[in-house]
Write a structure and sequence with these properties.
This protein is of the alpha+beta class. The chain has a domain at 47-139. The protein has three helices and four strands. It has helices spanning 2-13, 19-70, 77-80; strands spanning 94-98, 104-110, 123-129, 134-138. A four-stranded antiparallel β-sheet has the order 1-2-3-4, covered by helices on one side. The longest helix has 52 residues, at 19-70.
Length: 140
């Protein structure tokens, strides 16, 4: 009788995972995360770059329309009535240099305040000149 009881207890105690199995699973999950996180962050950065590219292209189009109508570049964002999309990670572009009767204008946009993925040290700009040339660049 005692032998039957001990055999039954041994059989029920054999269920579950060993420590080695759990460590192996955690190691595999760690490797998968190490591969996935950089790809996710890279895709996220490219998405924010595409967002500011679209915003600056709209500023470019509106600036050229303003230039055609007034024969000078706008001096503020209100001159071209640029509307930022809701939830944008970028602050509204400002005229960094030029504008008015100058030969060129440069719109500059920086990232939102701390807590956003794009920081105030991240900057993109677009330069338009009155001969029709334009150039766009980012430093992040």
């Amino acid at each position: 009788m005692l032998r039957f009881f001990l055999d039954q207890k041994r059989r029920t105690a054999e269920g579950g995972f060993t420590l080695i199995e759990l460590v192996v699973v955690l190691a595999i999950l760690g490797i998968l995360l190490a591969l996935a996180v950089p790809r996710y962050l890279g895709a996220r950065k490219r998405a924010y770059k595409a967002e500011i590219d679209n915003i600056l292209q709209e500023a470019k189009t509106l600036s050229w329309a303003y230039y055609q109508e007034h024969n000078l570049f706008p001096t503020t964002i209100t001159d071209i009535a640029l509307q930022m999309p809701g939830g944008a990670a970028w602050q509204t572009p400002v005229v960094a240099t030029g504008g008015g009767a100058a030969a060129f204008i440069q719109w500059s946009a920086v990232g939102q305040a701390a807590g956003f993925p794009v920081t105030p040290t991240d900057e993109c700009w677009i330069t338009l000149s009155n001969d029709g040339d334009s150039d766009q660049s980012c430093d992040f």
